[in-house]
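writing this on my phone so excuse typos. first protein, seq and then structure
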Amino acid sequence: MDETLKSLFDAILDGDVEGAKSNVQNALGAQLNPITILNEGMIAAMREVGSRFEAGEYFVPEMLISARAMQSGMAILKPLLQQTDIKSSGKIVIGTVKGDLHDIGKNLVALMLEGAGFEVKDLGVDVPVEKFIQAVQEEKPDIVAMSALLTTTMQMMKQTVEALTAAGLRDKVKIMVGGAPVTEAFASEIGADGFSQDASRAVSLAKSLVAA
């Protein structure tokens, strides 16, 4: 691996925001292709972060700071990537359902998905059913991702799936759900296409849903 890309990779693993930014600048200064910088420096680093999380070496705080470092580098790279013919991994609309104001898990999933090359439209927290419907109509995403951290708000996921069905949009998107109280059984019960218990697995799930 190129020395600058290795430094960028390490900066993201360490959650070093300034290091991520300066190494992206250095890589661009060395005439490296923005797509190479993205794939070999940033996406590779986030993949390693995911592996370390699954191995129990990293926890949510480490994932968050790595994701923020990745995002700081992405801010520099994004305008250049938009000029190239980079193929997005897919488009995802994400939000925490109505009545629920928890956003750390949802934000981490969004950051990890961006780090894996997905285009992410974040609707925020306390998202009503109508807003999910509108986003699907306007953004035409591949996936709708819903988060809930309260058992009381989980039912909003069910209502959103039902509303997408009623609006004739259910067969146009895949639906993935997550959050502390959400289970595989609940996901199946409400007719979601997949469930993820953490941000790292959410990326693998999203990739498999887009490929399906």
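second protein below, same order as before
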Amino acid sequence: MRVRVWSFAVLAAVVPAAALGGCSSSKAVKATPSPSPVASATFPATLQATNGPVTLPARPSRIVSLSASLTEDLFAIGAGPQVVAVDDQSNYPTGVPKTSLSGFTPNVEAIAGYRPDLVVVSDDVKGLVGQLKALSIPTLLDPAPSNLDGSYAEITQLGAASGHTSEAAGLVQTMKGKVTGLLAKLPKRAKPLTYYYELDQTLFTVTSHTFVGNLFTAAGMVDIADRAGSSTDYPQLNAETLLSNNPDLIFLADTKCCGQSAATVSARPGYSTIAAVKNGRVVALDDDIASRWGPRVTDLLSKIVDADRSVPAS
């Protein structure tokens, strides 16, 4: 089983590490501060990242990314030619310099072997950031944000770090425009729709307090996982909870990893009574897009909005 999640840490205590994939790991359960945007692309530059001030003496020409989301950000702002290596989960866009480097079990010597003048990571696994600092390798720690503003801030910071400030600003404006346009398409409802977001077939899910949950909240939907009263934002529901809450929509973020589909969901015992199943509103998502917070997050929001619009307004 492979589980694609926005934050590894919350599930780490209950799911074997070998079962997790697709998204970077994180030791922080609470939302981390967004990086401080930097207006200038001049060097030397000192950036304020989650791991504190990071000084770049010159425009980096050998960037290593150990985060699939940050890899997408870098290529989207035109810094792709500066990226010399990415981790084994970075598979977009086509042609990224994918390697056997791991964000889950990082090997400092292997990373240093690429002679990076900048490393970008989403997680400080086993003190990775400190180990790279000891080798005088500048490292930006940009964890999974808690909302879209955090995503925009990370893109802005990567633009400053890579010397692509204007391109980053343009990407952020484009994303904001798409988000505004998508949300404007939502129908007005007297009663909000409810949804269940599936991370894997053992019913791990997300609450509205996660990054992806924030997208659904922006679309005016109510997360049934919020009613579970769990102490984690990545709870594991049971079938009884799911059936009793009877969500209007089901979103599957486990189509690639776990082979789930509308057909497999409807075949589960008792699920044929759920409104989302009865009305054909089980939405298959691309696991990668559903687990990342880069530029393609607008594609995920588009699927959410389309699903909402498929339900007649009452």
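The first strand starts at residue 45 and ends at 49. thats all i got for now
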